[in-house]
Amino acid sequence: MDSIRFFQPHEGLSLSELAEQCGAELADSSLAGRRITGVAPLSRAASEEITFANSRKALPDLKKSKAGAVFVTAALSKEVPEGVASLIIAAPQTGFALAAALLVPDAMRPQTLSGHTGMVHPGALVDPSARLEDGVTVEFGAVIGAEAEIGSGTVISAGASVGRRCRVGRNCHIGPGVTLQHALIGSDVIVHPGTRIGQDGFGYAPGPGGLVKIPQIGRVIVQDHVEIGANTAIDRGALDDTVIGEGTKIDNLVQIGHNVRIGRFCVLVGQVGVAGSATIGNGVMIGGAAGINGHVTIGDGAQIAALSGVATDVPAGARWGGQPARPMQGVLRDAAEANARAFGRSKGRDGGQKK
Amino acid sequence: MDSIRFFQPHEGLSLSELAEQCGAELADSSLAGRRITGVAPLSRAASEEITFANSRKALPDLKKSKAGAVFVTAALSKEVPEGVASLIIAAPQTGFALAAALLVPDAMRPQTLSGHTGMVHPGALVDPSARLEDGVTVEFGAVIGAEAEIGSGTVISAGASVGRRCRVGRNCHIGPGVTLQHALIGSDVIVHPGTRIGQDGFGYAPGPGGLVKIPQIGRVIVQDHVEIGANTAIDRGALDDTVIGEGTKIDNLVQIGHNVRIGRFCVLVGQVGVAGSATIGNGVMIGGAAGINGHVTIGDGAQIAALSGVATDVPAGARWGGQPARPMQGVLRDAAEANARAFGRSKGRDGGQKK
Amino acid sequence: MDSIRFFQPHEGLSLSELAEQCGAELADSSLAGRRITGVAPLSRAASEEITFANSRKALPDLKKSKAGAVFVTAALSKEVPEGVASLIIAAPQTGFALAAALLVPDAMRPQTLSGHTGMVHPGALVDPSARLEDGVTVEFGAVIGAEAEIGSGTVISAGASVGRRCRVGRNCHIGPGVTLQHALIGSDVIVHPGTRIGQDGFGYAPGPGGLVKIPQIGRVIVQDHVEIGANTAIDRGALDDTVIGEGTKIDNLVQIGHNVRIGRFCVLVGQVGVAGSATIGNGVMIGGAAGINGHVTIGDGAQIAALSGVATDVPAGARWGGQPARPMQGVLRDAAEANARAFGRSKGRDGGQKK
Fold first, then answer.
1. pTM
2. pLDDT 10s digits, B302-337
3. CB spacing of A273 vs B267 below 8 angstroms
């Protein structure tokens, strides 16, 4: 099955074009006209492909590379084998990402099921009171609710539903089976399949005959250039709004509670949970499956390790981890002690199979 | 975009009506006729809105409030500024929840995509052998399987599927894209988008050529007044049933394994996982992302902290947390010790950004 | 509602047939003709039903059993009451699973909504360029994208979407609302509702104006006999493929990152997260909600405890747990110490309700 290709091969870009558009310097200008048609990992990039080497860990593969060109740092460029063109850049992975966007442009946004865009499928339902700009794609089985508004260039994929009075901006991709309710989505937003945005937050008060539902009357605001993974859930606010800031990237199976405010350019890795009314600054990175307590504040630029549990405010720029989360230095020391105890006493017993 | 309103403003209720229906006492009876049209948080409630103050933490906002009325405890009522009506009640948040249910009734159940109810959309599929009572709403793209039964007042939302022979009671809301299989759902149940109820439990036995699937022939029983969040998964029983008791509230992205029995009026917060055959009593609260081991029993009224891992039975009324879960007193002490070590040695090093 | 049956009763198999087909020995050959029509747990199996007793923990129920027959080990067979036929087998649960597959064959694969198979519903959308073998079932609201290929005997359930150029083998069940993109699925694969396979992996590089998306051009390969639970997410590879090996079983709400390679006959329990580029050997078992770090390798046959966090490579055959994960002996000792501290000091205070 290895021959199946989901993306079209590119007709090729010259190294001078790639260098210029990706902000890199071509080390050997005599190779300016070499054509590159695709991207590949360092270990198997061929003579028409471009790749990258990010650090000295890549050296063994780099020395054997047969790639057409490689993004490298100036320091690593001495190790590039003859015949491989060096594109020198401070951040080789970023250069590579930009090159890949040029060489495989179809991968920058999810594809439609038919491969076509720009029309409303007759097997979709668009409420007569909804307003669609020109050039909206609505796939089979999707439904656009009453008084909803969709901007041009946006794709509403098969089986997705856009709730009553929701707004989706321009050039968005709303994936298959996604549901939007009480949501205002900016432009250039990608939402992967099965994600749920804008359902009721989880709020109850104790009552005489059980739990009393607290009506959730806020919204979800998703700003421009946000990307949200698959099967994630973002609840709408209780009285205020839940907000996902510009350029923030959220992975799969993430839970965002009501009233959460996430700043710009944050990264939330898979299975993170953010409890209600937490406030997360700009440029915060949260590792996989970490849990953030309700009502805490995480300062700008903080980094939270995977699997940690944040119970208190985290200062700007801090690197925290563990359960309860605390500065990483303490976490690493505690882990080292646990490992010393575990491996010191038990190695060779239940620590692994003898061969 | 702040002007978009997903809910209709209410024409107004008098403070005497609100006090009576919410079980509160209006401190100044001369304000009995004041009309309230909406709800808002304490920090920004205006003169036609009602709000609440739950504890002394709310004092700064309370003292500046310009709300039309506020639910407060008797103790806090002295702090209510002139012009703001006090509705005195033991549990202000509960009073507020009841008032919100009166003032924003549309928020008590998710809305339909069209804003209308009570009809089967021609773009839905209802098997000829299914039985629908009068007044069932089936939205576009939903499917009702063979011999299924749906009670009056229930909404089956866009793209949801009700499996063969399933039953859904009256006045339920089955959200967009929800799937039911082998499930019997009571009345007044809300299931938010993308939740999966009744698929096969996860059961395999070791066999000669790999794993042998153990057929899962039980059901899922969801009792009345249950609310289940988005993208949650509840497997059907292996030989017996999986049961969710009356009035229990389950949040988003929760995993309930086969044969689990959950009692009445429990609260399971987002990303909780309950492994197969666990038994959970009545009135149990389980914090976010906690994991409950298979086959354990959690007694009535127990509270399990977020992110904890319950490996053993938990007595009724206990408050447990940590991994492995144990009485909270021990967890808090261990956390305090970890924090003392971490912050005592590392503060100002990797503990935060200096400004 | 207890009388509702989702499965047809079987007309009956003789004990000699069951013994032979399940690899068990019938202790009393005079019972060879006894007919069995169903399966039930030991505690309530009746005279036409078969059950199993796996260990001495089952003794109290076994001694009272009124089952028609019971799979037991030779050691336990002495305890089987008179009138109950003993089917002696080394692994009673495996025998029972095989018997259940014979007696409730409809439970071996999810049912269709209509109860019928083998046709493309007129309310489904199959792209004219897709290729379906004979005997494919496509339910209402499902969509098969351009150039996709589906093998005979496969069911594409209501509201599922098979992306452009995807391939699904023979005798698969693709559940309601499942989405496939950039995926090649083998034969005899079951995917439960709402699972997302083949969306973009989570890859960004730091750029001048925020985060730069790294195009994800790999695929997902799911080999034969895999079963995947509900609302799970499996991302496609960045440059290489994400691979799920033959016979592997994945539970609900599991997150599999890009480039992950999972071997044959593994078991991943609910809410596990496997970060990008991790490599998991054959026969690995990963307990519920465990997190596996990116780029680590887990050796063949290793077992990872529920709720643990694997940060480093795990040797073949090892049993690890905890956060960070280490050999279980250390984990159990640390847990025992934590429990001793917690219960030693606090029992009877916040450790439980006195009655």
1. 0.95
2. 999 999 999 999 999 999 999 999 998 888 888 788
3. no
